[in-house]
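User: Teach me something about this protein's shape.
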Amino acid sequence: MKIYHFALLFLIFFLGAVIKTDVSIGKLKAIENENKEITISLISATSDAVDYLAKTGSYGTDSINKEEVLNTFFSSLYSSLGIISNPSAQAEIDIYIPVILLCDVDGYYVYYYDEYMAADGNTYIERLWSEKMPYSYEDEHFIYRFTLTDMVYVYDKNGLLGIDGVVVSSDYKEFQKSPLYADFRVHNSDCILLNDEDYELIRKGPIMNKLEDVMAYYTSRHNLIAQRQGITYSFSFPAGKSNEWAEYIEDVNILVVFQGYPYGSDRNYTYNKVASAGANIIKKPRYYVEKKSWYYLVHRQGCEKVNDNEMILEETFDNIEECVKLGAYSCECIEHGARVPELK
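Assistant: First, the predicted structure itself:
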C-alpha cells in the first residue's frame, strides 16, 4: 500500500471523527436549548400566576380564586412550550408537576394528585386543593399561628396573658408595648414575643420547615399516582436546597415542583426544578444608616430621626445584619421596639 493510500485512509477516519463530534455537539446544544426553554417557560408561568394573584387583591382572605390562578399558570406554560392546542402533551406535562403550593399571608394551600374509589368500584385520579393550612408553631406556653406580616395569632395555654384558653390576634409588637401585657413582660422576659430577633428567627424557621416538609410529602406520595400511569421515575423532593426556592418566602408566593420530565431527542434526560415567584405584596421595612462623628447609627424605616437628616447614607438596607457589617449601632427605635408608622 502506497503512502497516499494511508493518507486517504487517515483523511476518511479524520472526517468521520469530525462529523461524529459535530453531531454530538449539535445534540448537546439542542438538549441545552430545550432545558433552557423549559426553564424559561416554567419561570414565566409561575410569575404570570402570582401576578394574577396580586392584581386580584384577594390574598389574605378566603376568597382567593385558586382555579383562576391555576388556569393562568398552565395556560402560560402550555403557550410557552407550544402545546396550547395539544391536550395529550399537556397531560404529560401535568403528571410531572406533583405539587403546587400557593402561600398566602396567613397560611398555604396545596394542589396535588389524589385517587379515590367511586361507587362503581373503580379507582380514579383527580387533582384538588387542600384546605388552608396555618404557619404554626408551639412552645411550652403558647401555640402560635404566624403570618407573613407582624400579625400573629396566639393561643394562651397557661393564662400568661391573663386570658387563659383564648386566641389573641395582634401585631406581635403590642406584646412589647401595650399596658395590657405589662405583667406578662415582667415575668416572661425570655418569650419570643418580646424579642424582635428571636421572633423573626422562630417565625421564619417553622414556615420554611413546614413548606419543605409538605412539598417532600406530596412529591414522594406522587409515586403512587405516577406508577399507575406507567411512569418509573422515582419522585423525591431535594432536601437541604431551600436556597433554590425560598427567595420569596417572606411574601405571598407560588411554589411549583416540576420533576422527572423526560426530554431530549431520545428522551433520556430528566428535567427537575422547584420554581417560585413572589407577588411583591408584603412590604418589609427598610433600614437607614446615619453617619455620626466616629460611628454609624442604624434606624428602622419610619423613625422620626431619619426625616430631613443630611447625615443619612443614600443606600438603604433590607435587614439589620447588613448594617451591622458597617459597624453600626442601633437607634432606640430598634433597641426598644418603638412603633413606627405603617408602610403604605
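Now, about its shape. The helical segments are 3-56, 66-80, 87-95, 174-177, 182-187, 196-228, 320-324, 332-335. Residues 287-335 form one domain. If you'd like, I can walk through any region in more detail.
User: That's plenty for now, thanks!
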